[in-house]
Automatic annotation (TrEMBL):
InterPro entries: AMPD, Metal_Hydrolase. One of its GO terms (cellular component) is cytosol. This is AMP deaminase. Keywords: Hydrolase, Metal-binding, Nucleotide metabolism, Zinc. The lineage of its organism: Eukaryota, Rhodophyta, Florideophyceae, Rhodymeniophycidae, Gracilariales.
Amino acid sequence: MEHAAPSDDPAPMHPAVDEEDTLTSATLDHRRSTMRSAAANFKRLEPPSPNHFRRLSVTPGPRTSFEEHSAKNLRRAVALRERWLYRPQVPEWVNYRKPRTTNEDVSSVFVSPPYDPFEPRLPPASDHVCQWYNGVVNVFTNRVNVMRRQPLIRGTKLHDFARDLVALSAIMNDPDTRSFCHRRLVLLQERFNMYLLLNDNQERLEQIAVPHRDFYNVSKVDVHVHHSSMTNQKHLLTFIKHKVKKFGNETVLANREDPNGKPLTLNQVFKSLDLQPHELSVDTLDVHADNTTFHRFDRFNLKYNPFGQSRLREVFMKTDNFIKGRYLAELTREVFEDLRSTKYQNSEYRISIYGRDAMEWDKLGTWFEDHRLFSHNVRWLIQIPRLFSIYRQMGRLNSFQDMLDNIFNPVFEATVDPGSHPQVSRLLQQIVGFDTVDDESQPQARVDLRRCGPPETWTSDENPPYSYYSFFIYSNLAVLNKLRESKGMNTFAYRPHAGEAGDIEHLASSFLLAHGINHGLNLKKSPVLQYLFYLTQMGIAMSPLSNNALFCELTKNPLPTFFQRGLNVTLSTDDPLQFAFTREPLMEEYSVAAQVWKLSNTDLCELARNSVLQSGFEACVKAAWLGKDWYKSGEAGNDISRTNVPSIRLCYRYETLLEELKLIYDDGVPRDIFVLPTFVYCGGGSYGDGMGDGENVRGGETVADGVEVGVEGDGHNGRRGVGNENDVIQRANYDGASLMSSAGVASDGQIM
């Protein structure tokens, strides 16, 4: 007797799908169909409407004096951030330039930027004159206005920032506000869990109804990764062994023991270190973080030296060395090719400008140009290590102002007269932001910034505090952005390392000044700041694998909590050389997070979408990756065919945020506050005023007068600037107080 072969498929419980043209979610529920049957018939599945999902209604009760007091404090904190952030005259998505190429073979995966990274022609110079005053550049239209003391773009004052930082700290430490924010955050977390219980299947149905797209082929950006550790240990080892075997006789290093002697070949370098190529392994390479690096940032920094030798770091991992960074450039191009082969993974690498030498920018620009370093998948940030004290002790810097000169003078000069620094001018097209980095865990005495002098007076061997660094980096970026935008050039975001360890003041400074931050672990210690980050949807790039090796174990990492509560978080790799095992380190981060915290496919796709939004890629690129309305909030800005994020998820996120804003702003959703996601661009080529005068502060709140504009946007329009000749940067010797006035646009055309 013959028996039919057993089948893995369950017995059908409903008529064949051929009897109908479509399968709605209601039909599937009525027929008790499984998700498997829905997946098998995805072509006939209608996606659920984003407006029809199960909601949990929380009825507001009468407002208490405790809630009124807390809401007022939170409105003031948002107003402080509003007044400091740089506001582009035109948002990046308005009238942006399209990609340079529109060939059919250039798919939506590889989108050309609106600029040529190696364009030989440069815009002409303009007549602008830049002068330093109290550590911040002021820009004048021409030399005549310098004599008249009429700046076009004014700098900001450290005293004003210090005052607002104190005000924010007072709000953070207010007991009633802390209790209020904690309760709201817990409620947000519980509401998200209830949302998942009610709508998890509907999210999966909406994803199944989208053909082709899944987590693997949605665009994602590693928004926080250091260039010197961009690859994994096996890749670096293979690269080193290949160079030693094939090019061992190449001269690669100056002879330090005998300056007059012949430079050393690669074979001689390894012989001097008593190393043989066949003996090398990832264990002897010793660049991977282990249990000895936990809370030991000093030991972690030593992991940047292959085989524990600084000589090999200089040969293989430096841009400015005897071979002019050729090996590092070759390794970089190999990583570029890895990214291209994955198609949907992109990176924003951080490369250092130390501020110890006035020629650093020119050398870096030459390195990029000589080796033709550009990738459709990559943009760059400049990281500024906070190492003033080291260079001061070495005698390379006399004051903190010298460091600022070395960092910003070449950039202002290249903006005013691109021909003065042609390589720097072209490099700046690929730069999307600035960062400041160092060991935040180092103890440092709390310094009252109101008593600190200008940078030229900081001649001590002590390192300035974090907030001092942040203010002067940010303030000069603010001026630089306004100048570059006026000339049609791309601008830069400020996205510092903050909250990995150390004082909570680091996060407070960043809330006032930064577009987004990296790490942010210490937000779990401040419910007020955490709630403010939620209200403003400030970007947070977190690196759980890095944190697990250095400061915070995976089981204690706040990322899943932040995500459930609705903060704008994403995943990043930080240092693949120290933490990754494969040539796809970003996928390692996502896979570990998915397993440890049981993240769903929707969760992973939402994190990936957040990474693109936080990144500095141009508007035309974001439109290709996320959809043409990517900049809109909620479901209106979602194209599930590109993001694979169910619209009901973003609809829930936005509705919940609106409810919180209504609670804070007395049942009215503010539309004129730039730092809130509900901000509406009114057209007319400008965002409007309201960046310095207390009467103009958004949301009905006022703060102290006198603060000028700040920096935020990542309005990378990629446009070219034009101008005239004869521009200089010089140090002001007049009383800058006479230059300060209320913010906005003055009657004489000054940009405040």
